[in-house]
Amino acid sequence: METLERTTIGEYVAKDFRTAAVFSKYGIDFCCKGNRTIDEACEKKDVDTNTIMDEINTVLATKNDNSIDFKSWPLDLLADYIEKTHHRYVEEKTNVILPFLAKLCKVHGASHPELFEINQLFIGCAGELAQHMKKEELILFPFIKKMVEANRNNSPINIPGFGSVANPIAMMMEEHENEGERFEKIVELSNNYTPPADACNTYKVTYQMLQEFEADLHAHIHLENNILFPSAIVLQDKFY
């Protein structure tokens, strides 16, 4: 029980990303709200803690040679990976999903009015994420890389205009939570991405793309909230 009280969901997923599937199975947010303990999350979802812990322990006890230990990566490498993998994914997929949703609204909106709200939510998501990622790429990530280089060379670093790195990180985490809540609404409106009986192939493909987009967003936010950001704050303490 001591472990349950002290270990957060995000820490479990940071240790082994396969545990994310267990939390997702029970509708527990492991990225935006990964700072909660399992006890807290289970109480919120009315799920038995022991059931989840049994499944998590099974996952952790199973050898997995294919898992990537992101926690062991240098922070500059991790920042580059997030940008080149997840940021590019968001940029590419939003340009594909937006016209698909617009088409669904035009063809099926009369009989499925929830599509209009889903469309507006995703338009908001695309716009906010575009701005969010630019702030990371132009301000936060470059500073994290400067800290890594300074630490590697045992050299000092100037205090940035934003002060502590915790300040932009707090802003990024708040924006992550906003997108998590936005997608919770999309999941609810789409009946967990379940196409209606009269859905055409475009309808089905669009819902599948939205589901995949959310899954990538969860992995993306997890790497930042649970690994990159906490490690950056610890690293900064070495300088000032």
Characteristic terms for this protein:
single chain; 9 helices; mainly alpha; 240 residues
Order of helices and strands: HHHHHHHHH
Principal-axes shape call: globular
Structural class: mainly alpha
The description of the largest β-sheet is: none
What percent of residues adopt helix (DSSP H or I)? over 70%
Unreliable parts? none
Distance between the termini: 36 Å
Mean pLDDT: 92
The value of Rg in angstroms is: 20 Å
Strand content: under 5%
Oligomer: single chain
Number of helices: 9
Number of strands: 0
Give a verbal description of the structure.
The chain is mainly α. Helix content is 72%, strand content 0%. The protein is built from nine helices and no strands. α2 packs across α9, α6 runs antiparallel to α7 and α6 packs antiparallel against α9. The longest helix has 40 residues. The protein is globular, with a radius of gyration of 20 Å. The two termini are 36 Å apart.
In brief:
The protein is mainly alpha-helical and 240 residues long. The chain has nine helices and no strands. It is 72% helix and 0% strand.
Secondary structure topology:
Blueprint: H1 2-6, H2 9-15, H3 19-25, H4 38-45, H5 49-61, H6 75-108, H7 114-153, H8 166-189, H9 201-236
Helix pairs in contact: 2-9, 6-7, 6-9, 7-8, 8-9
